[in-house]
Design goal:
Helices cover about 70% and strands about 5% of the residues. The chain has five helices and two strands. A two-stranded antiparallel sheet has the order 1-2.
């Protein structure tokens, strides 16, 4: 984590230095302030849209996973915009603007599916006549090497 923070600081200092060299210190400060103001306006607007979409999905009885993911990306974008610097402002705007947010959402969900597929399997533990019956379905040859914690017990 310390390496990421150090890398962030180096990248932002280089970006601010480059902009200040090109346009001057006063314009650099004004650009940083303008970015924060535009970013906060965009976060409010897109956050409101995302929240209304989640509510509409819930009221219609649909699964709102797309709307919730959009809301999470808008929140991430808002956090990035409030961090000082030009690079985080650009990343924050990219997370909030609908076309790039759609691309980010798809990439994020694909990664989650790959991660789940790489180490996930379905495990079902059933109690029959006081005996725990493990009905695990698994294609993972390394299943016995993992510790998934205590078994889940379904009685009924």
């Amino acid at each position: 984590m310390g390496v990421v923070l150090l890398l962030y600081l180096i990248v932002e200092v280089v970006a601010v230095w480059a902009v200040a060299s090109a346009v001057g210190a006063l314009w650099t400060i004004l650009l940083l302030l303008a970015g924060a103001m535009v970013g906060s306006w965009l976060a409010r607007r897109e956050g409101g849209k995302a929240m209304r979409a989640v509510i509409a999905a819930a009221q219609s009885g649909r699964s709102g996973h797309q709307e919730i993911t959009d809301g999470m990306l808008v929140a991430l974008g808002g956090v990035l915009i409030f961090l000082p610097g030009f690079v985080t402002d650009l990343l924050g705007v990219a997370a909030m603007v609908p076309p790039t947010r759609t691309m980010l959402r798809r990439a994020w969900l694909r990664r989650l599916e790959r991660t789940r597929g790489a180490r996930g399997y379905r495990r079902r533990v059933v109690v029959v006549d006081g005996q725990v019956v493990d009905e695990t379905t698994d294609d993972d040859p390394h299943r016995d090497q993992r510790d998934d914690g205590p078994p889940r017990i379904i009685e009924g």
